[in-house]
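quick one, 125 residues, struct below
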Amino acid sequence: MHPTPPRHAINLLDKSALIEQQWSPRVVAEMNDYQFKVVRIAGEFIWHAHPETDEAFLVLAGTLRIDLREGPVFVQPGELYVVPRGVEHRTAAEGEAHLMMIEPRGILNTGHEGGERTATNDVWV
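---
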């Protein structure tokens, strides 16, 4: 038996507009063991790394700055950047940016750093 495919496409900007708090990623879809999450950000996040996985960022609106120890990378709407596993990084935005993140299910947004910025996983919007 085949699963029933969705009847509608997912509008990522509409989904990100439903998120009330910044820095609170929300799942919009899953594919195999990967989750597609949308998030609104402003200001700077904490330095962290994900030793077990790469992390992909697709910018929907605004400008994302990804700080690396070697210097910043600026990602514009429609652009994608993949932070390799184990690379320490910090995401930031002047003003507000809307992003989609693609990562395996269960990955915490703060990596192994933890703390008050750690978002609850598996919350859908």
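Residues 12-17 form the longest helix (6 residues).
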